[in-house]
Amino acid sequence: MDKVYDHKHVESKWYSFWENGGLFSPKSGRKYFSIILPPPNANGRLHIGHAMYVIEDIMIRYHRLLGDSTLWLPGADHAGILTQVVYERELEKKGQSRHHLGREEFFKQTYQFTQENKKQMYAQLRAMGFSLDWSREKFTLDTEISKAVYQTFKLLYDDGLIYQGNRMINWCPRCTTVLSDLEVSHTDKTSSLWYIKYPLKDSTDFVVVATTRPETMLGDAAVAVNPNDTRYKALVGKTAVLPLLNRDIPIIADSFVDQEFGTGAVKITPAHDPNDYEIGERHSLPKIQVIGMDDKMTKEAGKYVSADKYATRKQVLADLESQGLVERVERHRYNIGVCERCDTIIEPQISKQWFVAMNKTGKSGKTLAKDALKAVKSGKIKIIPERFEKIYYNWMGNLHDWCISRQIWWGHQIPVWYKEDEVYVGIEPPKGPGWFQDTDTLDTWFSSGQWPFTTLGWGQKDDSDFEKFYPTSVMETGYDILFFWVARMIMLGLYVTNDVPFKTVYLHGLVRDERGQKMSKSKNNVIDPLNVAGKYGADAVRMALVFGTGPGNDTNLGESKIRGMRNFTNKLWNVGRFIIDMKPEKIKPHPKKTKEDEEILEKLKRIKKLVTHGIENYHFGIVAEMLYNFIWHDFADKYVEHSKPRREDSQPILEEVFEEYLRLLHPFMPFITEDLWQRLPNKSGQSIMVSGWPKRN
Questions:
Q1: Is the distance from CB of 476 to CB of 59 less than 8 angstroms?
Q2: Residue 17: in which H helix or E strand, if any?
Q3: Helices and strands per DSSP (H, E), number in the chain
Q4: What would the pLDDT profile of 371-392 be if each residue is shown by its tens digit?
Q5: Which CATH fold would you assign to the domain 33-137+444-523?
Q6: SS3 434
Q7: pTM confidence score
Q8: Lesser CB count within 10 Å: N end or C end of the chain?
C-alpha cells in the first residue's frame, strides 16, 4: 500500500467498478426500500446544499448492506421559471431574446441547454460517490412523465378541483408571469409613509389615510376603519372624494383594519393588494385595475395612463402637494414581496388563471388539504424532526387555492384546448381543425409534486417499479421546501394513488459557512462541492457534512472541518497499512485473549448496536461521531498500540475488528472503505457494498 492515501485514484476507480458492475440497481431482498432523489434544477452546477444528498446515500448503502431490495432513483427538474430566466440571460449575451426565436425554437434550445447541464450535474453526483441507479434516471419533461402529469390535471379537472377564475395573484413584471405565494420572497425595506387627506363629500372636513404606495390610490374603492375605533364611528357610511380623480368612495368599517397603523383609516384598493381584495369581497367593492401587467398605468388611472408606475408615484405626490393634500411624510420600515428568481418587486394583480382547490371536496369525496393533514396526524407519514409537524399542521390548515398557471414558454403547456365556446381537457390534443391550446404552462411544483409516483411508472404499461417501491420509504430534503414541495407531494400522491407517497420525511438544515453565515456569492463564502472534494476527497466532504449535525438543524462547514476529516481518512489508511501490509508472517489462529482483546471486541459489539440503532433512528451526526471516535481512539490509539508487541496473537482480532468496522463506516465514507476492504484477506463478496451489514452479536 502507498504510504499516503490518494483519493483521486481511488474514487474514480471504485465508482466505475460499482456502476459498471450494476451494483446500484435493486436486487431481490428481504424487503423493499426506496428513495427518490429530490431532483436538482437542470440549469446549472450543483452547490454545497446538494451535497447533503449524502444523508440519502447513507440510508441507501445501509439498506443495501442489510440485504434489502434497494432503489435510489435519480433525476432532474426542468425548473420552469428559473430555467427560463437563466437561459434568457444566455440569449441576452448573444443579443437575442426568446421572442426572436419563437416559442418552438426557444423550447428546443432550452431543452438542449438542460440536457448539457444534466451531464455536468450527474458527473458531480458521481464524484460525491452517490450510489444512484442511473439506469432509471428521469427528467420532469420526459414523455411518459409528462403524460402522467397531464393525466393528473385531467383527474383533478374532472373532479371539480381544478378551475379557471379571476383571483388575486402575485405578478412578476420582470418574468411576466404569476407566482405562487411560496415563490415570493419577503424582505424588509425602508421607505416613506405618506399621510394623504381625502376630502369628505359636501363638507370642508377630510379623513387622513397613510400609505406606502400613493400611485395605487387611483384605484381606491373605499376608505376603511375598524368598527371598534371610536374616532371614526361618525364617519362610517359617509362618502369621501378620491383626490385627483374626484371619484366618490364609501367609508366602511372592517375588523381587519389595524387601529394602530397610520391614522387608523386606510385606503382600500381591491385590485392591487391581497388584503384589500378580501375586504373588497366582503363589502362588494369594485376592482379597479390601474396598474397593468406591463407595470404601466391603465386608462382607469385617468391622465396618468401609460406612465410607469414609479414615475406615476412621483407625479401623484407632486399633484397632491400642489393641492395641499399631503399632511406629512414619515420614514417607514415594512416588509415587501419580491420574486425569488429575479428580486423584482411583486405587483398584486387580479388575473384569470388556473387554480387547484385546496379545501373543496371533489366529486370523488377527496379534499386535498384535509387528506394531507390527516395523513401526518394519523401517523401514516412521520416528519423528522417532530417539531416540523406543528409547522406543517399550521400551514396546511390555512391554505389558499393554488395558482398553477404560468405565463412562460418553458415547461408543461396546460393540457386545455379551445374552439369557439368549447373547452377540451385531455392528455392528447383533440382531433379535428380549429382547436388551439392554452398558452400558459403548469407551475413547476405541479409536476415535481408528482415525482414519487411518476418516476416509478404510475400510469404506464410497465409499472412494476411502482408496484414494488411505492410508497417510497423516505423523502429526505431541506426544511426550507417543506411547503414548496413536500406538502404538495403528499396532497397529489394521496389524491392520485390513494396512498401516501412516502412513509417518512427527513428534513435536514441549511449548510452555512464556518461562522454560521448563509453562503452567498456576494459574501464570497460559497463552497463548491466539487472543488473541495477534488482537494480533500469526497469521503472527507461527506463526513464533514454529517459529523455532529442533527435533524432539521443548520450545519456550519468550512475547509478546516473538511481538512480535519481528510486527516481522519489518513488515520484510517495508516491503520489499514499496519493491519494489511505489515502483518506478521506467522499468525496464531486461536490465541488466548487478553483483557485488551476482550475489551475491543466488547466495544465492537457495542458500536455495532449503537450504529445500527442510530441509522435506523436517523441520528446520522451522532453515528458519524461514534465511528470517528471508535477507530481513532479506541482502536488506533489504544488497541493497535497494545497489539504491536504481540502481533502474532492479535492479528486475527485486528483483521476481524477492522473488517467489521469498515462495513459500519461504508455508508458514510464509501471510497476508502471499499479500497481497504478489498485488500483484506478475510473479506467475502464482490464489493463491500453488498458484503452484508455486521450482525450485532
A1: yes
A2: helix 7-20
A3: 22, 25
A4: 999 999 999 999 999 999 999 9
A5: Rossmann fold (3.40.50)
A6: coil
A7: 0.91
A8: C
